[in-house]
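Incident log entry.

Two folding requests arrived from the same account within the same minute. Monitoring flagged them as a possible duplicate submission, but the sequences differ. Recording both here for audit purposes.

Request one:
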Amino acid sequence: MKDLKKGIALAMAASLSVCALAACGESGGNGGKTGGTTSATGGDTTATSAEGGKVYYLNFKPEQADQWKALAAAYSADKGVEVKVETAASGTYEEQRKSEMAKTDAPTLFQVNGPVELAAWGDYCYDLKDTSLYKNLKSDDFALIQNGEVKGVAYVIETYGIIYNKTLLNKYFETDGAKAKSVDEINTFAKFKEVVEDIQAKKDDLGINGAFTSAGMDSSSDWRFKTHLANLPIYYEYKADGVGSKAAIEGKYLDNYHNIWDLYINNATCDAKLLSSKTGDDANSEFALGEAVFYQNGTWAYQDILNAGELTDDDLGMLPIYIGAEGEENQGLCTGSENYWCVNAKASEADIKATIDFLEWVITSDEGRTAMATDMGFVTPFKTFDEDAKYQPTNKLVQAANEYIAAGKTAVSWNFPTIPSEKWKDGVGAALLDYAQGTGDWDAVKTAFVDGWKTEYDAAHAGDTAAADDGAAAEESTAEEEEAAAVAAN
C-alpha cells in the first residue's frame, strides 16, 4: 500500500511539474454522461486487419463514451481494423460484463477494478508481461500481477474530494461572523463543519439553496457515498492496522462516517427525505448553476461542471474529505485507480493481437495521447505521456490535486477496490438512504458495513476455504497411508 501511494504521488507530481512548465490552461476534461448503454464502431465495421483481428472494448466510464467513439473511428480509419466500443450505463458494468463475456462474440478488452474483481476474472485476463503496454508503465504499482503474470494495467489515475465554488466560498468569508476567512483555515472536520453549518444558516443571504448539493441515491449518484465516501473509514482503519485489506472490517471509524454523512444531508439543497428521487445530474446541475457551494465528486466531473452552467476554471477548487480522524490536517485528496485494462485471454489470437496493438497505439500515438490527456482529461501512469507537455491534462481539478501533493500532503489511497462485493455496497447504500429518510437508524448502517463485509467476504472466498479443507484432508489421508505402510513394513 505504501508503494502504491508513493507511485501515485510520483505520477501526479510529474503531471504537476510538466503542467507548470507548459502554463496549463482551460481545455477538455471528462464528460459525464450517465445514460443508457451506448455503442460505437470506428470506421467501416467490415474492415479487419491483415490477420483478421478486431477489437471490442467494453468501456466502464460513461463520462468518456464519446471520446472513445471518436478514438475508435480514428484508429479504424488509420489502420483498417474494426474497433467496436460499448459503454455500460453508470452502475451497471458488472452486470453487463457478465452478460457480454458469456457471448460468442465477447469483448476482447474489458476492465476490472482491482484485486477483488481480478480474483473472479483472472482466467479471462491475458498475460501482458511481454507487451510494450506493460513495459511503458511507470511502476508495477499500476499493474495487477497474479502468479507472475500481468493480468491488468491501469490506464488512469483519478482523484476525488469535495469540489467547491471559490466565488461563493469567498463571498461567505466576507460575511459577518464567518467561521473562517480563508480556505487555508479549513483542514479538519471540526472547522469544516463550522463553515458548512454557517453557510447553511446564511444561504438566503448568499443566494444559494444549500451548502451541499443533493446526495442523490439512485444508481447515477449513490456510488459517491456507498463507495467513495465509504473509502474514508476503510482507509483509516487499514492505516491504523497497517494492512491493505481485511477479511473482516471492524468499523473503527463508522462514527466519523456518520458525522460526515449527517453534515452532507442536513446542510443540502433539499430535504433528506427527497434523496431517493435525486440523481447525479441533479447534483451536478445544482453545483454548476451556483445553487450550492460544495459537491463531493472527482476529477472526472470537470467537463460536466463546465458544460452544465456558467462556471469557469477560476471558480473551481477541491478540498479533502475530512471526517475527524487524527492527523487529518496533513491529509490530501483521495487518489488512485479502479480502472485496469484486461485483454480477453479466451479471444482468438488475431483478436488478442489486434487489441494489444490498439492499446499500444493509444498510449504512443499523438491521436491517442491527446485524446486521453486532453479530451478525456486523464492523468495516466504511462511513461509515454511525459515526453511532451501537450500530453499532460489541463483539468483544473487535476491541478488542484497536484497542489496538495506539492504541499506535502498525504494522498488518501483508494481502498474500495478491496470491498468484497457489489452486494455489500448496495446494502450500505440502502441503509444510508433509509437513515437519511428517517425509515431506518444508524445501527442498520453499521450492520450493513460490518456484518455485511464479513458475509460477502466469506461468500467470495468460500472456494478458498473448500480448497484448503480438501488440501488438509488430502494431507491427512496421505499421512495415514504412510503410517499404515510403515506399520505393514515393520
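Request two (distinct sequence, not a duplicate):
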Amino acid sequence: MQATATKQIVDIKTIKGQIATKIDNAAFSSWIEPLDFSIENNVLNLVAQNQFSADYINSVFGAPLNAVAAEYGLEIALSVCGSKNKSVTVANDNVVAAYAPAPVDTHAVAFDAFIASDENAFVLSACKKVASGVVSFSPLFIYGPAGCGKTLLADCIRSASNRVVMMSGAQFVSEFTRSLQNHTIFAFKDFCRNCDTFILDDVQALSGKRASSEEFLQLIVDLRSAGKNIVLTSSCAPNNLSGFDRRAQSLLASGLVADVVAPNANVKRTMLVRGGVSVNVADEIASRIANDGHAIAGVANKIKTYSELMGCDVDINVANRLLADTLQKFKTPIAMVKAMCEKLGVSYDAICGSGRARSLVVARQIMMVVLKNATTLSLAEIGSYVGGRDHASVLYAIRQIEKQQACDLLLTAQINQLISECK
C-alpha cells in the first residue's frame, strides 16, 4: 500500500514537470500549479478553486494537458473544489458553428472620411497599406487621445479589407467570457483566427482582465505567425499601457507603432464645413472648439439641427449663443494641465500629489516643458500648477526632457502638439 502511494506521488511530480515543459512558466505558476492533482483508476484528477478557473484551464490548456496525460495512459477529469461530481471534461472538440458573435455595425467608411493633417499623413498611409493586403509590419499599433480618429481609421481599414474581424476591447472581454460560460471557447478562438485582418479597438479595455489578456496575446502570436494583418488602437503607446507586463508591451510594440495627432484648427474647420456649418461660422469657431473629433461632430450636429428645426441659417451671433457652453473663451494654466492629464493618461490628483512612479514623473516633466513654451509663467509659477514643485525642481525637469528630445523624435512631436493645443 505504501509502495503504491509513493509511486503515485512520484508519478504526479513527473507529470507536473512534464506539463511545465509545455506551458509558459508564468501561466503554469498562475493556473496549473495551484490545482490539486491525484490519480485514481487511470484518471488524472485536477481540482480547481472555482468554476471560472476550471473553464479557463479547460479552454486554454486543454490540449497540452490531454497530451501529457495520454503519454502516461491516463484520462483527464477537471472539477471544481467542493463539487467533485460536477466535473468539466477537458474538451478537444472544435465546433465553429457553436459560436455566434454579437451583432456589430458594419456600415462602410471610406478613407476620405478621415481628414488628415500633415502630422497624420504617416499613420494614414500605414492604414491604407494594411487595407491593400498583407504587410510586413504587424501588428499596426495606433494610439492617440480621445477624439483623434483612431476608431475612424480602424473602420476605414475594415471597410476596405476582405475577411475582417473587428471588435472593441470591451467586446472581446465580453465575448471571451461568454464563450467560456457557454463552453464555446474553441469556436470563439476559430472565429477570431478565421480572418485576413484582425482589428481590436481600445486595447486598454483589457487592462486588469488577466484571462482575457492572456487569450488576446496568444491570439496576436498566432495571427502574426499565420501572416495575418493585425490592427490595434489604444489611448496611449504600448510602453505606457497599465495592467500589461513588459512581455505584453513588447509584443504589442513589435510591429509598427504610429500616433494619431488630435485635430488642428484647419482639420476642425474642414470637419465643421463637411458637417453642414457655413464657412464663415466655421472660420470663427474652429479655434475655440476642443481638439476632439467627438466634440467637433457634436457642434456640427447641433448647428445643423438648429437650422433645420428653426428654419433659418446660423450666423456667428446665433452660434455664439447656441454654443455658449461649448466654445472655449480662454485657457487657464489649470485647464491646460487638466487637458494634458487626459492626453497623457494620468489623473490630475496624481500629478498634483507626491507620487514618484516613473509614468507620473515623466508626465509632470512634460507638462512643465509645455507650460514653459506655451505661457509666460515663471518657473516657480509653473511648479505651483503641477503639485507645488519649487524653482529648482522645475528647472531640473525641463533640462531632463530637453535632453531626451534631442534623441527622441516621438517625444518631441508629442510635446510640440501639446504646446500648440495650449497656445
